[in-house]
Design goal:
Layout: H1 2-18, E1 20-21, E2 24-25, E3 38-39, H2 40-53, H3 56-71, E4 82-86, E5 89-93, H4 102-118, H5 121-140, E6 166-167, H6 168-185, H7 190-203, H8 217-226, E7 234-236, E8 239-241, E9 244-245, H9 246-255, H10 260-277, E10 285-286, H11 296-299, H12 321-333, H13 337-352, E11 361-362, E12 369-370, H14 376-388, H15 391-394
Antiparallel strand pairs: 1-2, 3-4, 4-5, 6-7, 7-8, 9-10, 11-12
Helix pairs in contact: 1-14, 2-3, 2-4, 2-14, 3-4, 3-5, 4-5, 4-6, 6-7, 6-9, 9-12, 12-13, 12-14
């Protein structure tokens, strides 16, 4: 496996370098669905891959991406979803049907990680006002000043999927960004520590008596009865969304050290996935939403260019290399290295027999490559998988 992952890793770095421009890192070389732009999420994730790889070209691309995004920050503090900036044209999107909450969280994470790794004081000072405005903006969308940010429908990376509320993914990104901010400031914060503990308790409930940090008691009790084997994807007034969210669980596993019981639960869930797919692969969301499910009505017409969320595809059960890579990093952070090895080996075995071209995702019903090609997102996922095999060497670069 080492030879295979090393080959993929080197190819991934070639892709990421090819996406790097003087304005930042493009999402893809392919001019389709606005991918040939600087994207807050994609460009910063690609830049983080560059930090792990110690690749100066990609790291400079991260720097330029952050500068471009900061230059077009909205007066209210919103970081653009994506920017097209040429000599004769500037086009800025803060989201189409709705804004993207994770643009601000990824911007904070990217800015802080760039500074912590590069010690580039000049660039940090130029980004600092935008980082502060981003932090203030995130505080406003808590809506109740209690620490968690509230994501509207289509308000993050899964912009064509019916996920909303106090989401695991967005709030774990916020925790990561805030922890990096405190590291730079060389400060501790009791309220942050309380919020982190509250997040861990509520998104993966465990029996506890008289704890004031329970968000809503009866839904919390109901979840205890269901014995969910992973973090829940979202909390809404009155109920939990208990679907497995790969990106959210990845970020949670990076933020938290889970208990031995929770590790056993994760192992059991991964074994369940392996039984479903014949390979230990990580779907974006699981189980899939099908036409007879109540969520289908919220899914079927929610798209910008074309409908891609048929069962087992795209957000709806597609297997994304980027979240697989982040999930492997999260597993390694919790010493689940055996599972990391199996996931990487199984992932490589699936793409080895196909015309792999850094595809966006793999369809989970037939394990065929799908989506756009030449994706920086997917190249980054390969980089993350590689470094998950030696997590101690890269954890400092992630600010962990």
């Amino acid at each position: 496996m080492n030879q295979s992952i090393n080959k993929l890793y080197n190819e991934a770095l070639v892709i990421l370098r090819s996406l790097t421009t003087s304005k930042g890192i493009l999402a893809s070389t392919i001019e389709s669905d606005n991918y040939k732009r600087i994207w807050a999420r994609d460009s910063i994730i690609c830049g983080i891959a560059g930090l792990l790889a110690d690749d100066n070209i990609i790291i400079d691309g991260l720097k330029q991406s952050l500068i471009t995004l900061a230059r077009h920050q909205h007066i209210l503090g919103i970081i653009p979803s994506n920017v097209l900036e040429n000599d004769d044209e500037v086009d800025i999107s803060y989201g189409s049907l709705v804004g993207r909450v994770d643009t601000n969280t990824w911007f904070i994470i990217g800015s802080c990680l760039y500074y912590l790794n590069s010690k580039d004081e000049k660039t940090w000072q130029s980004l600092l006002p935008s980082v502060i405005k981003s932090r203030d903006y995130l505080k406003t969308i808590e809506l109740n000043a209690k620490g968690w940010i509230y994501t509207p429908l289509s308000g993050n990376w899964a912009d064509e999927y019916p996920l909303h509320g106090y989401t695991l993914y967005d709030n774990c990104l916020k925790l990561w960004g805030e922890s990096l901010w405190l590291k730079i400031k060389k400060q501790s914060d009791l309220e942050f520590d309380k919020l982190k503990a509250k997040t861990l308790l509520n998104f993966w409930p465990k029996k506890i008596e008289n704890d004031e940090s329970i968000y809503q008691k009866q839904p919390f009790i109901n979840i205890l009865d269901k014995s969910i084997p992973h973090f829940c994807s979202s909390i809404l007034p009155g109920n939990y969304d208990t679907r497995f969210d790969a990106a959210g669980n990845a970020m949670a596993l990076l933020n938290f050290k889970i208990t031995s019981t929770q590790k056993d639960n994760i192992r059991e869930y991964l074994a369940y996935l392996k039984k479903n797919f014949s390979k230990m692969l990580i779907p974006a969301f699981w189980p899939v939403i099908k036409e007879n499910d109540k969520e289908w009505e919220s899914l079927k017409d929610n798209y910008s260019f074309s409908f891609k969320n048929m069962p087992y595809n795209f957000h709806n059960g597609g297997i994304w290399p980027v979240w697989t890579g982040f999930f492997c990093l999260g597993l390694s952070n919790n010493d689940l290295i055996d599972e990391v090895n199996i996931i990487i080996e199984d992932f490589i075995s699936v793409i080895a027999s196909q015309n792999w071209n850094f595809n966006e995702y793999i369809s989970s019903d037939n394990l065929k490559l799908n989506g756009k090609e030449q994706m920086g997102f997917s190249a980054s996922g390969i980089v993350f998988m590689k470094h998950a095999l030696n997590f101690k060497a890269c954890s400092k670069k992630l600010g962990l």
